[in-house]
Write the structure tokens for this entry.
Amino acid sequence: MIYDYQTGGSAITSYNLERYNSGTWDEVVGQTTDYLLLSKSIDSVSVGTSYTFRIRAKNLFGYGPYSDTATLSPVDVPDKMATL
């Protein structure tokens, strides 16, 4: 539960999702009003490579602090079995 003192009494108006890329943070999803719309397919990822993301929320008073980062690594389906 988010209490009024945590939001300045203002409802969240949008979210911003960023990905770390070679020393900078690139916007992946900007200013969406629906938290569920933050799910997004990201092209050009490599299996075994780690990708780091962060998110923040905005209300009437501006953006809040960024979340802790989350690091994810894409996986692939297993190779075809040679024999049963």
